[in-house]
What does this fold into?
Amino acid sequence: MFPLKDNIPTDRFPVVTVALIVINVLAYFFFQHGTITLGDPSSPDYLQNLFDYAYIPRELTEGVQCIPDASYSTVQCGQDPAGQPSTFLTLFTAMFMHGGLLHLGGNMLFLWIFGNNVEDSMGPVKFLAFYLLGGLSATALQTVVGPDSAVPNVGASGAIAAVLGGYLLLFPRARVITVIFIIFFFTIVELPALVFLVVWFGQQALFGYFGLTSGGGSGGGVAYFAHIGGFAFGLLTIRLFASEQRRQRQIERVGGLT
It folds into this structure.
């Protein structure tokens, strides 16, 4: 399922949401040296940057640094090599890195559709804090599930999952125009946000469960427990960040949600 649009208008221009999208796009092309092809980028510059600035759970849990060999086919973890960035820095840089153009595009689509309304409900400063803390919470759960993993973790999806969790409680009756793929066919339907987000979360939980047998809660290169951790953070903390007055104003602009 992919969302195309929701029916909640914004009261103010979502400056932080747009800024985050711009930063992610610039980071992919100019910081990561990513390509415009739909496949997985594999240039030496991209791969070296990945191991330097992506988050690797084992680096945090064991206090080591993990570096690839010359062919980038194996990883060795040991004492800090000279010039390697701090592991704590990678907790943040990894949130703005992506594993390919499709990965970037999908994340930015979700961030735009759901982020602008969540930002509108709390204001730009609180939204930025909510977003970053959601990303850190996502990383924390992924680390707990796979503490000895030496696989680089990148992507904004953990922080975006927090936005989705917050949106679920703020606007459960909003309508989301959704593309649903069924094997080789697709259809476009309008779903309540509650249905869309519960199904989305259910997929993450199911794939995360099956991914436990393949190491660290990842399956097919996706850190599902990071999604679960971010989503849970959004559910648990949204009331601390969002303004009920702003939320009601957003709902009233669409004539109420029934």
